[in-house]
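Notes from the 1:1 (GR / supervisor)

We went over the backlog. Supervisor wanted to see one worked example end to end before approving the batch request, so GR pasted a single chain during the call. The sequence is below; no edits were made to it. Supervisor asked that the structure be written out right there so they could see what the output format looks like.
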Amino acid sequence: MALKLSLGVNLKALYLELLWVPSSLLLFPSQWKLECLRQKLMQNYMKNNYYLERIMKREQERVMRTVSN
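Structure output shown during the call:
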């Protein structure tokens, strides 16, 4: 049962990924894999960049508070 559920989830994820893949990439599976990797790397970069900016802003605010006191 767990395998069936996992397979269903994986197929749904694959289908959702196919929605954004240009049709020209479907002709070249290796190109499609590279595009998937590129998208995932970009998502991770954006997420990490967001957290890094929040940390830097918090640190800057902390420094400004200590300087003003």
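Supervisor's comment: The two ends are 62 Å apart (CA to CA).
Batch request approved.
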